[in-house]
Amino acid sequence: MAKVAIVHRDEVPGLPSKYTDEELQVVIDMVDEMFNLLGGIDKFIKPGETVVLKPNACTYFGSVMKDKKTGEEKINLQAAANTDARVLAALTKLALEKAGAKEVITGETCAFDFHERWQAKITLDVSGIKAAVEAVGGKALDFNDAERVEIEMKEPTFAMDRIRVPELLTREDVAFINVPAMKTHTFETVTLGFKNYQGIFKWEDKMIAHDGKLSLKFVDIAKALPPRLTVITGIWAVQGQGPIPMRGHDYMTITDMNTIIAGDNLVATDAVCCHAMGIDPMSVRTVRMGAAAGLGPLDLKEIELVGTPLEKVKRDFIKPSGEPDGVYPNTRIFTGSACYVCKALARAMLDGIAFTLSAFKDDPIIFILGKNNWIPPDIVGSDKEVWVIGDCAAEWKDVTSNTHFYPGCCPMDA
Predict the structure, then answer these.
(1) What beta strand segments (E) does 30-157 contain?
(2) Which of 61, 155, 194, 265 is disulfide-compatible with 78, CB 3.0–4.6 A?
């Protein structure tokens, strides 16, 4: 039976990337308790092994930022988008000192690593993760600097037959530990253990099956390269239109979740975390499809829960939505038969506009995406500004004299 541990504290002092030794010790004790609940650290890490921790370091935000005008330090709630540096430090320290690991490497590629600003060597540094793990004897690695090998998926496959991954993760003497952050996500409802796999790929491989098969892509890679342990950091957490809390929208960051959820089965761990977030795991494509593929249980009756009772930590997170039409005023969104990924991309674009501007422009924002669209005659042939998103809508790329076309499936550079 899959086993999932829940470890909670009423208060966790310090910040994810700024803390004292005494404050860090609180988190070390939480992680140590987690291992003990799951059967001991030696169940997951053998003496002399290399441990690879895969965090979510998708943004260049630390939990402390300086005000550009005054120079004064203040808390940056956007840091909740990243895996908590304290948990990574605790895992590193315990792996080296208690389990006798040879080395502990924290590795990542950033979400938009086609751009020079979005490189893991930058996000691991700015987030405080690099300093945290190095302070206790670990190493930080941008997976884009690592050797890659192509691996085949295990039959039956759902979205791809092969993909390139860091060679390090394929070694028999490597303990691969998946360490995502507890977050909602506009595309996949949540970004937990399954979605965290996106950070092992280079940009061109990130875009493989980045369409209506996206959830199935993560099922394929989880089957081919399963983690020994999944540790979801929820000391801080993200709700609403995740995965990155928007500046000025403090409600998106929950700073008192104070919980770590970890388990020996990816499906079970993500499913329990969904329950803790007040989300039905059957509504999450990755979890539902992972269970259907036989990777693990999502029914709580088939999972051994240990530690803090689930009901004690359960919250009702604000749910994300990937639907772009009918949400914001002064917008005209034509989705046709677009897949959920292109619709979620359009929604994320609209959210970005709404969260950074006080209001939309006087002229309506017009998006066209998906096949099988009907575009009204007041738009066709006019000079109205239109954004055509994705290959499926390519027939409308010249619909007006002022059309912006973003090719791709899905066009993440939009």
Answers:
(1) 50-55, 64-66, 73-75, 103-108, 139-142, 148-152
(2) 61
CA angle at 63 for the pair 128 and 6, rounded to the nearest 5°: 85
Nearest in space to 128 (alpha carbons), one of 78, 168, 162: 78
Q: Is 208 exposed, middle or buried (CB count within 10 Å of its CB: 0-12, 13-18, 19+)?
A: middle
Q: In terms of Cα–Cα distance, which of 407, 329, 409 is closest to 396?
A: 407
- pLDDT at res. 359: 65
DSSP per residue, 343-399: HHHHHHHHHHHHHHSSS--SSPEEEEESSS----TTTTTS--EEEEESGGGGGGTTS
Phi and psi angles of residue 382, each rounded to the nearest 5 degrees, phi first: -90, -175
Q: Could you tell me how far CA 366 lies from the centroid of its own chain? A: 29
- Residues in the chain, overall count: 414
pLDDT at 39 over 80: yes
Distance CA 220, CA 226 (A): 10
94-152 pLDDT per residue, tens: 999 999 999 999 999 987 777 777 799 999 999 999 999 999 999 999 999 999 999 99
Strands, E, within 29-94: which ranges? 50-55, 64-66, 73-75
C-alpha dihedral sign at 50, 53, 58, 61? negative
pLDDT tens-place string over residues 258-276: 999 999 999 999 999 999 9
Q: Fill in the DSSP letter of residue 179.
A: E
Distance CA 30, CA 90 (A): 9
